[in-house]
Design goal:
The first copy, chain A, has one domain: Survival protein SurE-like phosphatase/nucleotidase (Stationary-phase Survival Protein Sure Homolog, Chain: A, 3-Layer(aba) Sandwich). Chain A is about 25% helix and about 30% strand.
Chain lengths: ~260, ~260
């Protein structure tokens, strides 16, 4: 039996606490290669680096684990792994995360973690984005590791149809306080920003994004936001055909 | 009658040729405010700037037109416009573009132009992303302007249902060579990268993304890729619920 190969990436950077937690999830299932950003890439969505050269650095290697840092975005890391470093190998799964902060609802669109997971799912293997609903530096990743292992195990054991990309969000709390896994749809909502304004030391005004999430359907029990708020692990399968089929019908009467 | 207010942004930067073409489209329909990136932001997807302060610069103003440059991503520009500069006004439409290069098929996911258009559609007005299938510096935007005006005119004249976000891609060629508008779905496909490798002047190896698009359904006449290749303007309505409803059903048997 060939050993499985798992690619791990994230958007918080190769040396983040959440990446170590993702490696812990992955190592139970096979050999692990990490290709993760040199620097924090939160909010980078599915961005790619078009106008800059990128540098790859081998950070360290031990039995069953190789870690590389790449100077690009999370999606660049996935491309570097599949199209260069591992191009002659078969990758069985991509894990992206574990993110410091949830990527539920519309956050899936802005998330570098999910950008990388989506990109991974383009390479004929399942991809799982793992996020913990806790931004704190001392966030407790135990529950995310427990449920990450369970979900990855189930995916690898089953004959899943491809493409498959999961957006997994784990609530704050110890593993025993979590009620289980819920398959959900993406909650509708949006962000409204308050731009923090201040003057820099040279007297130039600057702005800083500080937003607030507006939940468009707070009572909807089949959504990821509801699951998270009610101590469930929210699992949303994600696809990338953005076509609005409803509007496609409507517009026949609008565009001449 | 109140004059309409149109927000224009892009990902190629406030002083690009394509932006001037988008302003030409917009000015026929009302007062225009441009908030566009200071620098090129191609491939920035729906990225937001979380860890840097952002600077806003008023570039110039003339009758019915104000132009601002913002140091962030295309999505940052849209947020700056709606949540700060224009927060007390009603914006009737967002135009993002006109992009140098098409954003058909899976490119919608990586595109800063479409990231901004999608973000615009979160603010209770229609949003139109315009792209021209020509990367050259001397690209001819005439056809994109002609069809951009037609589509924007139709959208503003109709009582369109919201949210509405259009991904409009215009083929290369003079306006008279184009066969008309086709409503399409997003073509399935993906990119495979060839990393260009070279050594920098200090002897460090670097990589540069150079990809090739793989069309997953080359014969499908209802897709944007087919329309573009056959001299039609491709119009794909775009939505942002990424839930994979098919997999949502399948996974009930996989995740315990």
């Amino acid at each position: 039996m060939n050993e499985r190969l798992i690619l791990v990436t994230n958007d918080d950077g190769y040396d983040s606490k959440g990446l170590a937690a993702a490696v812990e999830v992955a190592r139970g299932f096979g050999r692990v290669v990490v290709v993760a950003p040199e620097t924090t890439q939160s909010g980078m969505s599915q961005a790619i680096t078009m106008y800059n050269p990128l540098y790859l650095r081998r950070v360290r290697e031990e039995e069953g684990l190789e870690i590389y840092a790449f100077s690009g975005t999370p999606v660049d890391c996935v491309k570097m792994a599949f199209d260069y470093l591992l191009r002659d190998e078969r990758v069985d799964l991509v894990i992206s995360g574990i993110n410091h902060g949830s990527n539920s609802a519309v956050n899936v669109l802005y998330s570098g973690t999910m950008g990388a997971a989506i990109e991974g799912s383009f390479y004929s293997c399942p991809a799982v984005g793992l996020s913990l609903d806790d931004h704190r530096d001392d966030a407790d990743f135990d529950a995310a590791v427990v449920y990450g292992k369970q979900i990855v195990g189930d995916i690898l054991a089953a004959e899943v149809e491809l493409p498959l990309c999961l957006n997994v969000n784990v609530p704050v709390g110890r593993p025993e306080t979590i009620k289980g896994i819920r398959l959900c749809r993406q909650n509708r909502g949006f962000w409204r920003e308050e731009f923090y304004r201040h003057e820099d030391p040279r007297g130039r005004e600057y702005f800083w994004l500080t937003g607030e999430f507006v939940n468009g359907e707070p009572g909807a029990e089949d959504t990821d936001e509801w699951a998270l708020a009610n101590s469930y692990v929210a699992v949303v399968p994600v696809q990338t055909d953005l076509t609005d089929y409803r509007q496609l019908k409507n517009l026949g009467n609008v565009l001449k």
